[in-house]
C-alpha cells in the first residue's frame, strides 16, 4: 500500500445496522476512481456484530483493501478516529461518519484541494454554498452554534463548523496532528483543528451537503456537557503550546 493515495477512516461504535450499507456505498463510488485507496473501520470497543460484518464484507470484496482496527476498549469517537488515522497509509486520509451524514460523493469537492497540496480540508455545513437536507432538532443546532462560537473564542480560531464529520489530512499533517491529540470525547474535532492552525497548516473549509441521521447516538445533555468540558481541557493541555511540542 505504499502507493495508496487515499485512506478512508470510518469511526464506529455498535454500527451493525448501517456499516455494510455504508461500505457498499463507498466502494460503489470509489470503483470509478483511478487512484488506489484503503478503507479503515476504526472501532471504539463495539459489543455488537460490527466487526463480524466488516470482516465478512472485506472477504467478499477482496479487490478492495478493507481493514478493521480496534483496541477493544470504549473511549469515545475521538479515540476511534485517532487509531484509524494512525493506521492509515494514504497520501491523504479522510475520516467520515458511519451513517454518511456527509455522503461519500462530497469527496468530489475535496479532490481538487488534494491535488493542490492543501494539508487540511474540512467539510462545513455553514460555509457559503453548503446545504443541510435534513436538519437536526432546533436545540441541537443551537448548541452546535454555541459550541462553534466558544471554540473560536477560547482557541483563537475562525472556523464556521467544527463538528462536521468529514475531514481530510495530508500524510505529514496527519502524522503530526494525531500524534499530539489528547481528547477522545466529542471535543476532539476542536482539538485537531486547533492543532492544525497552531502547527501552521493551511486549513480549507469546503461547503458540503449534509443530512441529520435521526438514529444518532448523540445524547444531547450528556454530550453537550462533555463537549464544553473538553474545550476547557484543550485550553489547559495546550496552554503552553511551544513547550508542549518539545
Summarize the structure.
The protein is an alpha/beta fold and 246 residues long. It is built from 9 helices and 9 strands.
Q: Your description of this structure?
A:
It is a single chain. The protein has a single domain (6-245), classed as Spore Coat Polysaccharide Biosynthesis Protein SpsA, Chain A (Alpha-Beta Complex). Helix 5 (138-155) runs parallel beside helix 8 (220-237). The longest helix is centred in the middle third of the chain and has 18 residues, at 138-155. It contains nine helices and nine strands. The protein is an alpha/beta fold. It starts with 5 loop residues before the first strand and ends with a helix. It has helices at 19-30, 50-60, 77-87, 107-115, 138-155, 171-180, 188-198, 220-237, 241-245, and strands spanning 6-12, 37-43, 65-70, 92-96, 120-124, 131-134, 166-170, 203-207, 209-211. The protein is globular, with a radius of gyration of 17 Å. Strands 3-2-1-4-7-5-8 form a seven-stranded mixed β-sheet. Strands 6-9 form a two-stranded parallel sheet.
Summarize the helix and strand pattern as letters.
EHEHEHEHEEHEHHEEHH
Helix segment count? 9
What is the percentage of strand-forming residues? 15-25%
Overall residue-averaged pLDDT value: 93
Instruction: Sketch the major β-sheet.
Output: 7 strands, mixed
How would you sum up the global shape? globular
The CATH superfamily is identified as Spore Coat Polysaccharide Biosynthesis Protein SpsA, Chain A
**Oligomerization status of the protein chains:** single chain
* Uncertain segments: none
The CATH architecture can be given as Alpha-Beta Complex
SS class: alpha/beta
Helicity, in percent? 40-55%
CATH topology: Spore Coat Polysaccharide Biosynthesis Protein SpsA, Chain A
**Strands side by side in the biggest sheet:** 3-2-1-4-7-5-8
